[in-house]
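Re: duplicated header lines in exported structure tokens

Our pipeline writes sequence and tokens for each protein into one text file. With two proteins the header for the second block appears twice in some exports. Here is an export where it did not happen, for reference. First protein block:
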Amino acid sequence: MKKTVVLATGNQGKVKELARMLAPIQMTVVPQSEYEVEDVPETGTTFVENAIIKARHAAKITGLPAIADDSGLAVDFLNSAPGIYSARYSGEQATDASNINKLLRELADIPEPERTARFICVLVFMRHADDPTPIICQGEWVGRITAKPSGSEGFGYDPVFWVEQHQCTSAELSSEQKNAISHRGLALQQLLTQLRDQQD
């Protein structure tokens, strides 16, 4: 029997990625917007705290199990900024383009070897709103920031995140290539393993 899980995000890029990757374990992923769940303020100071806040909120309103993802880019030269503020790095009305432009301005004179960065993803699965032991998984993807954007796939900072293994940016990878090595892909593989174990 297929199980419905609500995904606590309004980001359509994340919805598509997670729905595709959860399909093998017979889970139907439905975005919280279908239940008219509004975004909850992300008042945590870490990716883990924010993911738990979002998952609990979605589970409470829908009565369904919930998955929340909190992720972002940590640039070493910028003391791990933008970090948990990645989505709104350039202000409350931020877009992917305005965030990228701000990041490139911050790193304008920084030589290539010092432009190292990591994408970080924390996934939280809550069986219900009062789940005392949510499943928490974390993935990291190491790369560096390019001098200018390249590629049209993906979302967020993908066009400026250089992937050494493929000699291109994340935005130049296919979804299959990206899911195999990305921070979200790694976190989701951990989650799949744990959910499969619980189904057995």
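Second protein block, exported in the same file:
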Amino acid sequence: MHHRTRPARLLTALTVTGLMLAGCGANATPAGSSATSPSASASAVAEALPRLVTTYDGGIKVLDARSFEVLGDFPMEGFNRVNPAGDGRHVIISTTEGFKVLDTGVWSEGDKHYAQDPAMTDINFPASKPGHVVRHDGKTILFSDGTGEVTVFESSDLANGQPKTETHKAKEAHHGVAVELSNGELVLTLGNEEERPGIVVLDKDGKEIARNEDCPGVHGEATAAGETVVIGCETGVLIYSGGKISKLDSPTKYGRIGNQAGSEESEVTLGDYKKDPDAELERPEQISLINTKTKKLTLVDLGTSYSFRSLARGPHGEGLVLGTDGALHVIDPEKATVTKSIPVVAPWEEPLKWQEARPTIFVHGHTAFVTEPKTKTIHAVDIESGKINGSGSLEVTPNEFTGVSG
């Protein structure tokens, strides 16, 4: 299946200073090529140019984050997931064959900034059932659910082609996640096809230094200020810091925290909260705040449900939750209160299948980008003022959604 690249139609004038057309080429480089270093088509630009990446049924599009112009369109069958690689330029695509790398075509070197056409690179990391992609301390960490293998590399090395990697292996394959800390320690989930009971921490030489198996259904991670790692459970969370693992129990017998968002600006992580183990699809109306300093778990009533693609953090560590009421709810993580609710999209309902499109949030700087699949639209919201500074439409329905800083 092939799709032509066309500029997205602007619905509203972009009013924020610096929100203008990028001024670089709009033709996609053919899949399979490599654009990991400056080419003849690269142009010097005045400032860093953020770009957005969205999947759709049949491919992946790269957009200018300021004009919403479509800069690249890459046909790709199947359900694919996208995550920023951590270098402000590349995006990791989880496919049926493993992790592939998309070059969005924008990057900075010191105080100089460059832009060129997006390209699908020939960098890839074969994996059976590619799972979580984690970015921390300048490293990218990939987890293969099919083998339990962990692949770690310097995020910045992607600019030079296939990077050198270090690998680790979980004892058994499972749907897991890993985080490598600045001192070389590795936080790694435990599990198999039957159960996922907890985590283990290995030192830089691979020696076990901590373990906790009081975390049924272990899923997801977030890192707070001070390199404190929080891992979700069906009965609360595990917190790892300074060589020790602490368990925070949920206030209800079953209290699943499976998706989180962390911020280096905050000691508090933002998590979802589900308390009905028998629900086909629970639509929770509470979120969890995990204070890693006081070791306290607090629930906040939103008055609306949300999905696993609804959680994000603002530039100052604010908690952000995109509700099914169509509003972006801004939360003070220290006070555990909703400070404002910004209407963005029409009210929506989370679909039963997790792979189906639903409004999704990605944050760059002070702007929250929100997709609205029903109208094939993306909105740019100023988090502090609450104003929608611009909206752009697509010819396809956006699904998975992320971006890079440039």
